[in-house]
């Protein structure tokens, strides 16, 4: 299938209708190109688009066509796709201050840009499973399903360096599966610029998290390995729970 030119760029526009000739056949593709391949395209390419952009609409449709639950505040608007395992953060621009509780149709799309995407990995074990006792998964996160677009492709920044200024040898992309662990993230991305969590008793602590600021990636880890006094010793085997993608800094 071929589409009219459509770039996943901030404010990008275009049509996603299939182009056919009068005989119903696909035309010469010299002036067309394949629809966006969301299996290999990095989600970083969506940052900066407006809520009504064609690129974003195509991305959501590639997962499943559905409307989000909208949460609006004066400094942020969230589009929550619970069944998709995806939450989008839009920030107001040009002095726009959305009122609390706006509906989707009441938003000023031209004054909102995509600032972040959260992808969830939230299995829902049976309450009777003894392994679930003592876990501290947040209620809000449990409302989300595991992200439907797994495997998730993350683009890595070029010419990244370590704390000593040495250039890291890394691939251009990192593919995340539902079972990807902390040690796999570090092996590919290198040591994180920031990290935290994991302190306190396992029954009430926050899971460990790592942020690769230069890549615009933050990962929160889940499971018993990510909590408690020895979380950082066991965290290498913890599976990711939430991946947040944001503009690189």
SSE inventory with pairings:
Elements: E1 2-3, E2 33-34, H1 54-63, E3 69-72, E4 77-81, E5 86-92, E6 112-120, H2 139-142, E7 152-155, E8 173-176, H3 182-189, E9 194-196, E10 209-212, E11 217-221, H4 231-234, E12 240-245
Antiparallel strand pairs: 1-2, 3-4, 4-5, 5-6, 6-12, 7-8, 9-10, 10-11, 11-12
What does this entry look like structurally?
With 249 residues, the protein is α+β, with helices and mostly antiparallel strands. The chain has 2 domains: 2-120, no CATH class; 130-245, no CATH class. It has helices at 54-63, 139-142, 182-189, 231-234; strands at residues 2-3, 33-34, 69-72, 77-81, 86-92, 112-120, 152-155, 173-176, 194-196, 209-212, 217-221, 240-245. The strands form 3 sheets. It has an 8-stranded antiparallel beta sheet with strand order 3-4-5-6-12-11-10-9, with no helix packed on it. The protein has a two-stranded antiparallel sheet with strand order 1-2. A two-stranded antiparallel sheet has the order 7-8. A hairpin with a 4-residue loop joins β4 (77-81) and β5 (86-92). The longest helix has 10 residues, at 54-63. Residues 1-36 and 128-136 have low confidence and may be disordered.
């Amino acid at each position: 299938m071929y589409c009219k030119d459509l770039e996943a760029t901030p404010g990008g526009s275009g049509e996603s209708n299939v182009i056919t000739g009068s005989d119903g056949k696909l035309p010469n593709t010299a002036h067309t190109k394949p629809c966006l391949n969301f299996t290999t395209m990095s989600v970083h390419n969506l940052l900066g688009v407006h809520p009504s952009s064609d690129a974003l609409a195509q991305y959501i449709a590639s997962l499943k066509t559905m409307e989000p639950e909208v949460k609006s505040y004066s400094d942020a608007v969230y589009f929550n796709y619970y069944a998709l395992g995806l939450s989008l953060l839009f920030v107001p621009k040009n002095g726009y201050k959305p009122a609390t509780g706006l509906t989707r149709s009441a938003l000023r799309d031209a004054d909102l840009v995509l600032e972040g995407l959260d992808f969830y990995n939230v299995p829902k074990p049976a309450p009777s499973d003894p392994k679930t006792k003592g876990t501290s998964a947040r209620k809000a996160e449990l409302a989300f399903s595991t992200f439907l677009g797994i495997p998730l492709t993350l683009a890595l920044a070029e010419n990244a360096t370590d704390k000593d200024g040495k250039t890291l040898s890394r691939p251009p992309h990192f593919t995340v599966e539902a079972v990807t662990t902390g040690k796999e993230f570090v092996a590919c991305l290198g040591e994180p610029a920031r990290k935290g969590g994991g302190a306190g008793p396992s029954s009430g602590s926050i899971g460990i998290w790592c942020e690769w600021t230069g890549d615009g990636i933050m990962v929160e880890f889940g499971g018993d390995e990510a909590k408690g006094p020895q979380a950082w010793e066991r965290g290498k085997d913890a599976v990711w729970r939430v991946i947040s993608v944001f503009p690189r800094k």
